[in-house]
Amino acid sequence: MTFTNLIKHKYKLALGISLLFHVSAIIGLLFTKYSDFFIDNTPLNLIISLVLLFYTHQKINKSLWLFFSACIFAGLTYEIIGINTGFLFGDYEYSTVMGYKICGVPILLGNLWFITMYSVGTLTSQTYTWFKVKYNFNVSKDLELHVLAITGAFAAVFLDFFLEPVAIKLNFWQWYPLGEIPIYNYVCWFFGSLILQYLFVNLSFNKQNKFAVYLYAIQLIFFITISFFYK
């Protein structure tokens, strides 16, 4: 088996596993009496998504580990500040669904930040490369980095826009005092994501991972579906 075929095999396997878990969750939440089981196993889904991203990434190096560590640290720091001060995101609180907490924040939230930042960074990088080749245009390196980082941050906010209502419905976290999601949350998400996206585009690791693009699309479809149809 050639290296190219091996990579394609990895993508297909990872895509199949991810679809299995997300489609099963949609069916379980919408059409069975076992919604609690699927909600309680959300941490497992997060861990599997993380493993699949590393499994499909080509040539793992120190820069990728640096980005992973930065996302974990920054994500948990953002959330700890948000939970304990209300200065970031607004007034909200996590339930016990996501597992063990530190300073009121589930540790797995660090994984979620990495999964999101890696996926949106890869999505924007690959989309930009496709347009660049397709239409044969060139811009300065500095402008290119700004475009990629800002677009990646907007993609993260777009995903969060559909994630938030689902998180409330499935009791991952709740907003206070009236349960309404403040616009301020999305503003903070944008700037928090922007910092990490600048790091993503400046670090030297492979940005071509088709599964990360698939995962972004799968999660988006999952959140939209549950947001509209889960009661």
Strand order in the sheet with the most strands: 1-4
SS class: mainly alpha
Rounded to an integer in angstroms, the radius of gyration calculated over CA atoms is: 18 Å
Number of H- or I-type helical stretches: 8
- N-to-C series of helices and strands: HHHHEEEHHEHH
Largest sheet: 2 strands, antiparallel
- What is the number of E strands? 4
In total, how many domains does the architecture comprise?
1
Q: Hey, roughly how much beta strand do the residues contain?
A: under 5%
- The average pLDDT value, as a whole number, equals 92
What is the CA–CA distance across the termini? 47 Å
Low-confidence stretches: none
Q: Give the % helix.
A: over 70%
Describe the structure.
With 231 residues, the protein is mainly alpha-helical. It has one domain. Helix content is 74%, strand content 4%. The protein has 8 helices and 4 strands. Strands 1-4 form a two-stranded antiparallel sheet. Strands 2-3 form a two-stranded antiparallel sheet. A hairpin with a 2-residue loop joins strand 2 (101-102) and strand 3 (105-106). The longest helix has 29 residues, at 3-31. The N and C termini lie far apart (47 Å).
Quick overview:
The chain has 231 residues and is mainly alpha-helical. It is 74% helix and 4% strand.
SSE blueprint and pairings:
Elements: H1 3-31, H2 35-40, H3 42-56, H4 62-85, E1 92-94, E2 101-102, E3 105-106, H5 108-135, H6 141-169, E4 173-175, H7 183-202, H8 210-229
Antiparallel strand pairs: 1-4, 2-3
Helix pairs in contact: 1-3, 1-8, 3-5, 3-8, 4-5, 4-7, 5-6, 5-7, 5-8, 6-7, 6-8
